[in-house]
Amino acid sequence: MTDYNMDKFNNIKLPDNIDSVIINAAERAYKKRNSKLKKALISIAAALVLFAASVNLSPAFAKYVSSVPGLEYLVKLVSFNKGLQRAAENGYTQNINKSAEDKGIKFTVNDIILDSKTIVVAYTIEATKDGYTDLNPGSFDFVDKSGKQITGFTTFGTTPDDKFKSTKKKDGAITMDFEFSDNIPDTIILKCKSFKDMVSEFNRETSNKIDGNWEISMDINKDLVKNSPDIYKLNKEKIIGPIKCKFEDVEIYPTVAEINVSIDNDEKYKFIGFVNARLIDDKGVEYKNFTTIGYPNDKTLKIESTYFTKSKTLNFKADGIYYMPKDQYVILDLENQKIIDDCGYGLELLYINRDTSKEFEDEKYDFDIGFKVKDPEIIQNTKGWCSGEGIDFDEIVDEKGNKLECDRRYWHGIAKGINDKEDSIEDGFCIKKSNPNSNPKLLKLRVSYVSKGTIEPINIKIK
Amino acid sequence: MDNCNKVISAINGDKECFIQVVTEKKEFLYRTAFMYVKNEHDALEILDQTVYKAFLSIKKLKKPEYFDTWIIRILINCAIDMIRKNKKIISLNDDLENIKIDVYENHEEIIDLYDAIDSLDADLKAIIILKYFDGFTITEIGDIMGASESKVKNMLHKALVNLRIELKEGCISD
User: Fold this and answer.
1) Which CATH number characterizes residue B119's domain?
2) B86 with B97, same domain?
3) Residues of A in contact with B51 (CB under 8 A)
4) For chain B, which terminus, N or C, has the lower number of CB atoms within 10 Å?
5) Which pTM does this prediction carry?
6) Spatial distance between the Cα atoms of A74 and A63, rounded to a whole number of angstroms
7) What residue spans of A53-195 are helical by DSSP H?
8) Which residues of A touch B (CB under 8 A)?
9) Do residue B51 and residue A3 have CB atoms under 8 angstroms apart?
10) CB distance A2–B35 less than 8 Å?
11) What residue numbers bound the domain in which B116 lies?
12) A108-118 pLDDT tens trace
């Protein structure tokens, strides 16, 4: 008989931080699940701010800004979003004016726009030593006083400042919604853990990561986060193409309007998104849908806020929806270097590079594959600054059906509204070294997203 | 909401339910991880990786009642990964010196598995931990390790034999 001693096992002391380790890991996984979305958001945000420079300000806002010193930063940063402009005009701002410096980088938070749904942080990055080409935020977290992460969808954008080399300065905004926070803490700390020094704006290959510690503590004006949204129940169903959508309700906050839609996906097709979704007030002013979050059957559309609009009526409109067949595969013959089946999306192979490691810092790749998308509908829809991402894949398998680990490339064709003259989109992906099959002959790419669909006007009366 | 429903919600992507279910199992998960690496830092990292990977792949869990065996399988893989990573910096001699085995007068019958398992290969170690510390049955261990019951029994036997050899060697070196 063998006996065994269980005391030592049962007496293994649990560390104090075990709960936070679990929560952090789950939060990270949650973020990762939404990372595709996040990637899209980042490029949209960047595009939006690039647009901002040329947008004319509303005269009321311009006047308001000129009478309040120090709000110039916000002007540039929120002029692309009418809702945020109005929130700022109506006093949902707070002056912070705090800096942190490390590794020759001075990070300043100038002002914030804040309500119970969103925080927009207007920042300035300044190089205090030589050697930096173009500094951008790398990774950052919002935490409370105890160091607990405040989670939410985060985007950042910067002004397209070609003058960084001479001025050593650039402005930008980081936006986060309190999507998962019940209580907004009294103090929010913006913790920057790294910056990226980019030689070329949309080419990650040439960026250098600068690790350090920049922390800005912001004491929140509690009056700004007290407000509750205007809520309108809708409960309206609409069938568009093969998809049934149920418009549940609308929540309107000072900084954002949110429409919750549940989707009944058809057996053969799945819903991707609305085309040109917007709210329209009684004067015909349009409030744009700037992003959509959620699960396949449950979407939240974020739209420029109409909170301060004294409109008698409010309508939701869209020009159609994007959807695609379920289980659709693009097939790529690696041996003969050609695309066998492009699912009719006009795909053209650009290059196949073997054994690469340059593009992403830590990973090594067996293959780096680039292609062009030439479908006119996809290109047209990708150019619109609120629309989708062209084409995307969620699973890549080899000829034996083995799943291959991949990384998506960053966009290097059209960066949403920045380069409108192109007639094709460049895209690509890299197959990681860690896969058991290092020499696949054939690749099957499951299409998860494509900006094509049914164009049919949708009109939902909200009030 | 009972546990099974919470697991179903977690499978459907409910983060809060997932955190609750995992937190309820934290002692079992952490201690199992600790058994592999015997230090808090690495055990927490294994737990962190396990929770992260589990939430990313929870949609693959078809039957909620298999949550325990499913997550422990992920944990074991993470633990083995960690050991492989660390192996590069631990020399075998140091390892052997650190093995301390309590041997009682009446032969080797009471084995202090807690320390003794350090000398086992990863797979054998997993079987001992699952069987004697986590209390899984042979069938469940088969599910977790992706092996037949008879293979599990053979491996268990092999593990116990190895432990006795280690014990004797331990005696000699003492």
Assistant:
1) 1.10.10.10
2) no
3) 21-22, 25-26, 29
4) C
5) 0.55
6) 14
7) 59-67, 72-78, 82-89, 164-167
8) 1-6, 8-10, 12, 14-15, 17-19, 21-30, 32-33, 180, 295
9) no
10) no
11) 92-174
12) 998 899 998 88
